[in-house]
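Input (6,7-dimethyl-8-ribityllumazine synthase):
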Amino acid sequence: MHHITTIEGQLDAKGLKFAIVAARFNDFIVDRLVGGAVDYILRNGGSRDDLTIVRIPGAFEMPLVAKKLAASGKYDGIICLGAVIRGATPHFDFVAAEAAKGIAHVCLDTNVPIGFGVLTTDNLEQAIERAGSKAGNKGVEAAAATLESIRVLEQI
Ligand SMILES: Nc1c(NC[C@H](O)[C@H](O)[C@H](O)CO)[nH]c(=O)[nH]c1=O
Ligand SMILES: CC(=O)[C@@H](O)COP(=O)(O)O
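Output:
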């Protein structure tokens, strides 16, 4: 009898250590993402004692900090949270692109799962909608994705 092998991650955070990297820029939005991520980990069996929150200036600074955290070997997963909101100049594009590209690089270079919970929005309203209101909470989604990735990778 042939059968399909399926590998799936259980959403159980018990015993896992997470670092949350949170940008201070637009902190009134980012704090909602942090709250969502922490709540998700705790509701899924994680412990406050296993959570570390690292505050950094802005999304541009994320890749280097995430790289050092990942290389330390102390964390099973890293959750990057920020809010890049378009302004009047092309600055947005540079900050958002470097954050996304840099975080993806760190993830692949270190083999540590990293959740990308960085909002990249055209305006403040879109950011508010994604920080715990009508379009959900991207901090929760990033925490969930990080947890699922950790549990999947354990089985491969
Ligand atoms: N405009 C936003 C920034 N800009 C700041 C940069 O991330 C960086 O801190 C600065 O260029 C110094 O290196 N950061 C965000 O997280 N969100 C923004 O909307
Ligand atoms: C995404 C940003 O860096 C943004 O706050 C910059 O705004 P501006 O383009 O108006 O300087």
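Residues 42 and 112 are 20 Å apart (CA to CA).
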